[in-house]
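> tool_call: predict_assembly(chains=three)
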Amino acid sequence: MTLRSYVVSRVLLTIPMILLLLTIVFVIVRILPGDPVLVHFEKQATPAMIEEFRRELGLDKPLAQQYLDYLLGLLHGDLGKSMADFSSVGQQIFSAFPATLELSIYSMAIAVLLGVFLGARASRSYNSIEDHSIRIYGIASYAIPVFFLGMIFQLIFGIWLHLFPTGGRISLGMEPSGLTAGDFHLSTGLYTVDSLLEGNLSEFVEALRYLFLPSLTLGMVLSGIFVRLTRSNMIETLRLDFVTAARARGLSERAVLYGYALRNAFLPILTMMGLQFAALLAGAILTETTFSWPGLGRYLVDRIAFRDYTAIQGAIVFFGLLVALVSLVVDILYAYFDPRIRL
Amino acid sequence: MRGRIVVQFLPRLASLRKRGLAGWITIIGLVMVTGVVLMTLSAPWISPHDPNEIALGPVLGPPSWSFPLGTNNMGQDMLSRLIWGGSNMLQVALLAVIVCVTVGVPVGLLCSFAGGLVDKSSSLVMDSIYAFPGLVLAIAISAMLGPGVVNMALSIAVVYVPSYYRIVRSQVLSIKELPYVEAARTIGARGRSTLLRYILPNVLPSIVAVATMNFADAILTAAGLTFVGLGLPISTPDWGWDLTYGRRLLPSGIWWVIAFPGLMIVILALGFALAGEGLSELLNPKLEQ
Amino acid sequence: MILIVISGLGGYFVGVSTVPPGGEKTITLTETVTASPYKDTVIMGTTDSVQSSIDPSDAYDFFGWTVIQNTGSPLIDITPGSPAGPKDLAPALAESWSVSSDGLTWTFNLRKGVMSGDGVEFTADDVKYSFERGMKIANPDGAVVGIGYDAIIGSVEAVSKYQVNFNLKFACGFFGQLMAAAPSYIVNPRYAPMQYFRINYTDGNARASSPMDFGPYTLTSWTRVGGKDQEMKFDANPLYWNAAAGYPKTKHLVLRFYSDATTLRLAIEAGEVDLAYRQLGSTDIQSLQQKAQLKVWQGPSQFIQYLVFQQNIKPLDNPAVRRAIAASIDRKPITDVVFLGQATPLYSMIPNGMAYHSDVFKKLGDANYTYAKTELAALGYSETKKLVLDLWYESSGHYESSPDIANVLKSSLEKSGVIQVNLHGVDWPTYRNNMRAESMALFVLGWYPDYVDPDNYLYPFVNSKASWLHSNYNSPLMDSMTEEQRATADPQKRTQLMASIQDLLVEDSPIVPLFQKSNWAISKQNVGGVVLDISMIFRYYLLFATK
């Protein structure tokens, strides 16, 4: 199969999955107990008021019609109106998303780098104390609740040692605004990128300072699986004949390790990154709450307290689409690198 | 057909100790879990004070001789709260695992054995749920259902059913093709007895391994749900609740309210995770030690 | 450099002692240059946020009111720092006012020459429009309906360009205080069209997000990220009617919204904000009091919390049962343990420090288990046959420390030995829903005054027609007494009525007052003008930070 036909077939497979997810979310929000509209009125609401509210949100139409409207709306990128103030949910999500994206990128980077480094070391000193302790770390990092680890870091590095800030994304007035050249304006929403675009080094450093603890927390919790993956992968590779041949040719241990073994582990790690993306998002919710990070995770948690069903639905759908997109991209990349999988 | 299960399982259990690290970590994990469970079960006898009694000690007192783990903002003894605090979490985890197993395993067996459209469509549904960030789904369902032990267990169970489904399905698919199953079919064994006699016993060890990891996940998810405010009513002491509430005390340098409950959650989850890791490596050895 | 010289010369020529550094203003020799000892910008932090809008016809939350009261003006204001009695009313947009002898007509003489932000003079028509709008829109969730303006005001007439008459339905003794409340603030009609249910937040357009005008500040920026308030910016309004007196004291205010008390506490501790107000936890307040670089401000608060009985659920329809439960409550752990002494026990629905207050619930006492046991024994309850109660609390942080308070209530009621309490925590929207559905047997609520008068602590609770509690308390005697006290002009009669009302309150115990909380703010040492008085109006325009 060519790459192109693989991509096409993969995309086609994703569509029913997404449709299924959307339907599940629609059902959950509409069918489960509790009338979302009534919950929004504090005192006596006149029937006229309630009807008006329902109409504004499109809840007065028959269920099937609502479902179709919902799907059509999604095709246009319309995620509905927030029940709190009728503003666009899509717009709210887009304003909150860059924060989560930035956190995710840095956390994943730390997870992979930390995991690969430790996994490689463990594979080198196979069956030693170092190996065993790294393996234990691999399991233990998974078992610690991410928000507990976050709180410990806040306590040690923020409150006792005063080294890093314990909450928020950046201090007042230091938000980078990106590149502005005359009428042209470019900003990614990622503070580390925008500050560099702006050329403001102090803002860049500040953004990193605020990013450090949250991404370290989330990164550490995710790193466990990469440790185990790298380790097992490299141990297997190191036994293969061609490696023995390379060693026989006199290549240094390091060249053997990083040249061949690590390169072989690359694809599984890439796949794992895709698989872990869902776990990353889940962890991001808790991390954002712990560090008051103004991202999509915290948005979801806030909206739940508000009983803002359209927003909750919109956020979940967005998460789902994101996961589907990432796994699609990872699968395609994998197929690109390893033609065998396309068969 | 008990003999088959015993024949398959016992030698593996006995070889635990011979299996090096995998064996050791399984034992350590099980010991940790058993320790916590015993502590929780014996709470009425070993707890030094009533965990709910207000103003028993000084408000926010640091660890001292009279209160070894300190007191919280209501003057309650943290040690007593620690001893009692696992009960909610263990109940939720147990219930979640039971629901998962009773739903996931039969569905997995039946659907994958049936094959064809049933298999493909149930796979699609399960894969969709599996791929989705678990906590998000659990949060959504929990928010809709409301507080309560059963509701929390259900929210967690929904998220983890696909794991069982997948493992069962992969086992079924491989075993389905094995010669002796084919043979059994040719001599007239019906589908159901094939399932029960041949397939289920072979699938059981994997289910045990998944269930153990499931416990760990359930505990962490329950803690996570409590943290975002979807926890249980606070009349019973609960580690998740202490952890959530204690967060606001950190800036005042009060570390003992979160440290010990958090540590207990780690021990419990780690115990299950170690046992799960060990078991899955024993039952499906990947590497030659 | 040249500007400094010019400003120096300017200062010299008009005899000013200090010269502002920097000299960005262009100075002419005829202008009076007053060197301000205050900083231009003060940064505030809060965990509050706008609950629905900053529209006087709609907003019914503390913070919404604060913004309204700082970006708008009422006819009458309450003198800052005063006990907010009828003698403490000060002219604002009304220069003077008079009441007819029968108390049914209030005439206000308006200030002349007050200009709105869009260049139109303030007249009686604006007043008429503001009040009619509030009452016509009749937003059932809004303050105007919630307080019952239409039960008090019959009609509003613009008698002439600068004179307004309010024709009341009864001789309302606290009408003056009502005119100083946020829903009575005057809107700019051009930014408050009648057909809109309320003026909502509009992204990127602060002017379109608010109908307010004529106030000490103008809202110049309001940003939300992900649906959450991030920041508000206020600039001094040069057209403010009291600008000549030097208000507001600070030219620019930045208000930063923090997601929770912990982050706010860290912010003020780190000096990220100059002032932190609402809400800081008791532990944080106590620990920050030790910090030398911070100043702690404390003021009397009119915020109270009380327990409500749903009388549709048996046996709560029996006053003896309710009294027994009330007597078993121990307020001390709430005030001393939960709030670390930052709250005081409350023994009447009228708060301490307010007129007519009397500690009537002391008759039932705290942790009075002998009384409770006797009363309940007569109804058949004992250690073996306990009275089982469902106590509900809100768990989403709408009130501070609700779960802890619920825990204390449970523990103190169960100490009687004859009561068993099951706790239920639900989030605020569900809590409100349950209130309307009348499904909660016992529940705790909080209250801020709408206007500073004891009527506001009685009428909306125990008068069966006005009550918002859905508690099904129906006492014709209480109804007639509460109606009489709000319409009587005779101070002696009112005192008598208030005493009888409070006695009946204990007798019937439809609700049980629990505690009253102080008001706290924390600031840097150089901040001043933080006035935390009984009116609970947080006046931004008094704030300043010295250089």
